[in-house]
Amino acid sequence: MIQHRPYTQKVDVYSFGIVLWELITGLLPYQSMTAVQAAFAVVNKGARPTIPIDCLPVLSDIMTCCWDSDPDIRPTFSQVVKMLEAAETEIMTNIRRARFRCSPHPTATG
């Protein structure tokens, strides 16, 4: 949209990738930039948020697909849903492990 190309759902797919990054990191992307600087960097320099080292590869793959500089290569939302469904077990297993490791008080059940 910033480049004045026709609006398609691929813009929303890019935004979904950003929201997924925000959910994973708990941060706002491009914090050191103004909105105009961030938009310029994304469009003209290919800037993308840094993916954390401990991010699940499957989630990293989904984000980077959604952020592809060529909107035609970005997945559709149907494809994103399929990718998330295929990764559900891995995501949920790792979330449970992370929650268990971070639990301040061990429970009687484990």
Automatic annotation (TrEMBL):
Q: InterPro entries from the entry?
A: Kinase-like_dom_sf, Prot_kinase_dom, Ser-Thr/Tyr_kinase_cat_dom, Ser_Thr_protein_kinase
Residue ranges occupied by any Protein kinase domain in the UniProt entry:
1-92
Membrane-spanning segments: none
- Cross-referenced SUPFAM superfamilies: Protein kinase-like (PK-like) (SSF56112)
Q: Which Gene3D superfamilies match?
A: Transferase(Phosphotransferase) domain 1
Name the Pfam families on file: PK_Tyr_Ser-Thr (PF07714)
UniProt xrefs under PANTHER family? SERINE-THREONINE PROTEIN KINASE, SERINE_THREONINE-PROTEIN KINASE HT1-LIKE
Name of the molecule in the record: Protein kinase domain-containing protein
Q: Which organism is it from?
A: Solanum tuberosum (Potato)
Lineage at the top is: Eukaryota, Viridiplantae, Streptophyta, Embryophyta, Tracheophyta
